[in-house]
Amino acid sequence: MEELKAKLEQAFPAVDFNRTDLIDGSVLDSITLVSVIALLEEEYDIEVSMDYIVPENFQSVEAIWNMVEELG
Asked: What is the structure's pLDDT at 49?
């Protein structure tokens, strides 16, 4: 999970990935979310289907990591 956090922080330096309200707090906008999904798919060789693009999967780095593990 720390590796994922480091990759996200490097790719999106303006985003505070220590937060646990990335979606509810409007930290990730729709364009950034699409870019995060693209990064996940490329880095972890997964496909994030529409079923997984729900707020609870992107609220925190931990939630994102749990989704990556489930899809991997």
From this structure: 97
Three-class HEC string of 18-35:
CCCCCCCCCCCCHHHHHH
Percent of the chain with pLDDT over 90: 100
Give yes or no for a contact between 43 and 10, defined as CB atoms under 8 angstroms apart: no
pLDDT tens-place string over residues 33-45: 999 999 999 999 9
- Written as six digits, the tokens of 71 are 């899809």
State how far the alpha carbon of 35 is from the alpha carbons of 8, 12, 15, 39, in Å.
10, 9, 12, 6
In the block, residue with structure tokens 């707020």: 55
